[in-house]
Each structure stands twice: as structure tokens, then as C-alpha cells.
Amino acid sequence: MTADESTAATIAGLMSAADRGDRAASEALFTNLYRELHRVAARQLRAAGGTLSATTVLHECYLGMAGHAASFPDQPRFIAYAARAMRGLIIDHLRERRAQKRGGAFHLTSLDTELAEPLPEDEDTLRLGDAMEDLAGIDAALAEIVDLKFFCGLTLAEIAALRGTSERTVQRDWQKARLLLQRSLQNS
User: Fold this and answer.
1) Per DSSP, which regions of the chain are E strands?
2) Cβ atoms of residues 152 and 75 within 8 Å
3) Tens digit of pLDDT for each residue in 142-162?
């Protein structure tokens, strides 16, 4: 058994135990997947241009996920779920920051409190988040492909293996998802 197969077997066992409510297994699973989840968080933050750190996003995501009883059949689906949760946290943070910049925070000071307009990257990330919500409403499977490809950094071949379909099918779905996202972004 190779090291990758051994790691996959360990993670599969931890996922199974965590699904049965074993708190220690949930914590061990998080520890084993920490590096991968940190990479996903860092990738999303680079795309968002936010002020949060990858570690902060990852820990907030863990705290949010720890209270939910969700079942994940394998590691890629867990990573995709975590990526979706992290994206939501980043978008919520950007919305909160935008609200504060527009007078949402209370200031008692004699200094000039005018803040600059949000960075274009913030606006783009918020618009993309809204477009992703629209896409999930239209076709959740297409939204999952975007999460796996864009936010998790998986290749089309890896997504095809995960979904048990051909790479060509995933490529067609990826193109369809991109068109729907583009249409949604143009209409917003």
C-alpha cells in the first residue's frame, strides 16, 4: 500500500467515524486535512483580495462546520463543502467591510472618517458570490463544478474521477457553468 493509499484509507475511516458522531474522529479528520484546507482558503483569499488570513478563514470555517451534522462520502466532497463554506465566510466578511465603509460603523472622532470606496476586487468577489448563488439555484451540480475547479483548484480530470463521469462531460458542464456565470455577472 502506497503512502497516498494509506492516507486515503485513514481519512476515509475518520470520515466514517465522524459521520457516526465521534468527536475525536472529527478533530483528527480536521488535523489530517488541515494543510489541504489551508491551501483552499489561501487560494480563495487570493481570488477575493480580502484582508483576512487563510488561517482565520480556515478556523472560522471549522467552527461553523463543527456544529453541523453533515455526511461526506469522500475527501474531495468534504474539501468542496469546506471550500463553499469558506467562500461564504469571505463574502460575508467583504459585505460587512463594505457596510462599514459606507457608514455602517459608528465613529466618535474629530478626524476625517471618510473611507475609500471598496476595492474593485471586493466588488468583483461579491458579484461572483451572488452569481454563484444564482447558479446553485439553477443547477447545483454546475455550481459544485465551479467550486471544485475554481475555488478548490481541482483539474477537470480530478473532478471527472470524483463524479464518476468522463472528463469531456465535466468539460462541457464547466463551459456551461462559465456561460451561466458570465450571463449572471453581466445582468448584475
Assistant:
1) none
2) no
3) 988 888 887 777 889 888 888
